[in-house]
Amino acid sequence: MANTLVLYYSATQTTARLARVIAEELAADLALIHPVQPYTEADLDWHNPQSRTSLEQHAHNQRVAVTVDWPNPAEYANIILGHPIWWGIPPRLISAVIDQVDLNGKYFASFATSGGSGYSRCQTNLQRAIEANGYHLAALNPGRVLSSPTQARAWARGLELAR
């Protein structure tokens, strides 16, 4: 069994591609996050202010239900969470994941894919979710926007993780 779980959400397979690279680099287990109600192409239309994602992302403290079908996080010392960036922050389902994955004592890292956003708002958003749950991490690695397999491998090698 691997010591690291790479848990990710990917609407368009961009994040999935880099999650696989990171999992391979770290000899980690890999698990996809599934929203209970899958997103349609119309839901993902960020040009439409009435699309599902537009409405979700603008509702503070919104949670999007996820299907808990990933491996038991208690079996891992390291949790890496991957996601796209929507409206400058992680999709609202990522906060729901943090609510459901006990991160106490874990080494935690997160990464994102994006067409143009930086990671600072995402890092703040995730830290707030971690604090709201009262988790005490062993380490919180700085998150990063990744755009290539080479970049993903280098980022993964630089993480502070339990060995």
Automatic annotation (TrEMBL):
Tree of life domain: Bacteria
Pfam family, one: Flavodoxin_4
Domain Flavodoxin-like per the UniProt entry, residue ranges: 4-133
First and last residue of the signal peptide: none
Entry's Gene Ontology molecular function annotations: FMN binding; oxidoreductase activity, acting on NAD(P)H
Cited SUPFAM superfamilies: Flavoproteins
Official protein name in the record: Flavodoxin
Organism: Limosilactobacillus ingluviei DSM 15946
